[in-house]
Amino acid sequence: MLGLIVRRFFQLLILLIGISLIVFMSMHLAPGDPAAIIGGPTASESDMEAIREDLGLNKPVLVQYFDYMKGVVQGDLGYSYQTNQAVTAAIITRFPNTFNLAIASMIVAVVIGVIAGIISAIKQNSWFDLSSTTIALAGISIPNFWLGSMLILVFSVTLGWLPVGGLNAPFYTLEGMKQLILPAITLGTASAAMIARMSRSTMLEVVRSDYIRTARAKGVKEKSVIWLHALRNAMIPVITVIGVNFGSLLGGTIITEQVFAINGIGRLMIDGIASRDFPVVQGTVLLVAALFVIVNLIVDIVYAMVDPRISYE
Length: 313
Fold this sequence. Notes:
- The protein has 313 residues and is mostly helical.
- It is 77% helix and 0% strand.
- The protein has helices spanning 2-29, 34-39, 45-55, 61-73, 87-122, 127-141, 144-158, 174-207, 210-217, 222-251, 253-259, 265-274, 278-306.
- It is globular.
């Protein structure tokens, strides 16, 4: 296990370096001049040249990249071109909103997906199975921005039960929970559908195994057969889906945060792209990439905990 963690750590470093290079070059090759955006429409050529000199934008691109990476190694992600705020400070301020939203969405996805998948497998070809399969297909197909807009229209505008948007109250308060409900459902629906389909297929495969038939033949209660014997082995592939989806949720909050006006990492990234704020975009992308790899490492560790047969030696 220690060897796995060490190998993944070095893979993480290589991956982040590659991602940082791609994002850095993409931002610099995109049309538009950050100096012109920062200076505004009234800035003269001398003003823009002074901005380029101050920000180091007149240096060769590779020199700019190596200068940036030197700062990253020291924990300095640079300063925003628009606000002159440290990117690290901006990320620390906004990350809790994104993390809370991702956690709430994952809870929605796991609870709905696993329960629906298991019941569908137990009651194969029943009305519940057919209904959940149809809903799962719809959940994967529906775009986040449309679902979020519809939920706002129904539960906020028409019924007035939940807030329209924002996430400014602590998540552990009643108001904070109300603010999280609609965004969490919006973001977690597609993941719930994928988890439900995976749970159903793996549970169907496991319940037909020889050891399950043996347990039933010995007179073990059906509930024990399903929840103690079958579920643990059926959850191995599901854990993969959950882990990958959680990493995707952290990066996929961009649209949901825009729809519900949540000041999170996704919205910070979009604002940075719109204003060609290189340090902000690079810092947020690096964070999301690092979290995605770390989540996958945690999934591998959980594998070994759930199934002792798995070895990483």
